[in-house]
Amino acid sequence: MTIAFESATAAVIDFGNWRRAGLLLRRAAPRNPFVRRQLERSGLTARQVASDSDAWARLAFVTKDDLMQDQRLAPPFGTRCLAPIEELGIVVESSGTTAMGKEVHFITQRDYARTLRSWGDALRRMGITSSDIVALTFPVGMSGGGVKHADAYVGIGAKVLRVANLSTRAKLDAMAYYGVTVVVATPFYVDRLGAVAEEAGIDLRALAVRRIVVATQSVTCDWVRSTEERWGAKLHEWYGTASGVIAFSCEHG
């Protein structure tokens, strides 16, 4: 089991060291109602979790219901916020597709900077550099994906075109005009770009695009191969959650 603890939140997320995470829980329990509720549900004390690795197996998972109830008790961030508001750097919402409401997640300035550094490292491993021009088709709104993509690419020196508000044809025109080398989109929208390009007589392989980064939908290996052939570009996949977890496919695509 891997356990983690972000400095801004009382949600356990990722540290391979259970003892360190347990000590953090023990420190948070006296001053954080959210942590106390989770421990009570588990029938555990913070001291037990900090000293007994077997206790982790009995620690209750944090569910969507837990988060939504916590937000209702103490809007907007809930009682699980451990950092003063002065230290918070960004607030993001989940998409709301569960129909259970939108989770509100908060990230400290320090944690956000750390996230962007990790994101930048992944982009470099994918072969993206400061010489790249990126067409970001995700909207830069309240969800985390768009704004984090924008900030991470800018952080490594790439030029980011925020084209989400343009029509599909206008996006293609911008990609040709600016010499876009990286496209960030959902798999569905990659197909939409391809269909509109075909209608307009635009040869996708004649564009400067050499990397495509997709997220939000499941894809098949056949779709990846056909898309790479259609665009003459390497395809990479990105995974993320509103709470801040990120993962990327490797540099080989």
Describe the overall structure.
- The chain has 253 residues and is an alpha/beta fold.
- The protein has 9 helices and 10 strands.
Helices, strands, pairings?
Blueprint (H helix, E strand, L loop, with lengths): L2 E3 L6 E4 L2 H11 L4 H10 L3 H6 L12 H10 L14 E6 L10 E5 H17 L7 E4 L7 H12 L3 E4 L5 H11 L3 E4 L1 H14 L10 E4 L6 H11 L2 E7 L5 E3 L5
Parallel strand pairs: 5-6, 5-7, 7-8, 8-9
Antiparallel strand pairs: 1-2, 3-4, 9-10
**Rg estimate, integer Å:** 21 Å
Q: Helix-strand pattern, N to C?
A: EEHHHHEEHEHEHEHEHEE
Strand content: 15-25%
Spans of at least 5 consecutive residues with low confidence: 1-16
Strand order of the largest sheet: 6-5-7-8-9-10
| Sheet of most strands | 6 strands, mixed
Q: How much helicity do the residues have?
A: 40-55%
Apparent shape: elongated
Number of helices: 9
Helix-and-strand structural type? alpha/beta
E-strand count? 10
* Chain oligomer state: single chain
Would you tell me the overall average pLDDT? Answer: 85
Instruction: Give the N-terminus to C-terminus distance in angstroms.
Output: 27 Å
Key terms for this structure?
single chain; 253 residues; alpha/beta; six-stranded mixed β-sheet; two-stranded antiparallel sheet; 40% helix; elongated; disordered N terminus
In short:
The chain is of the alpha/beta class.
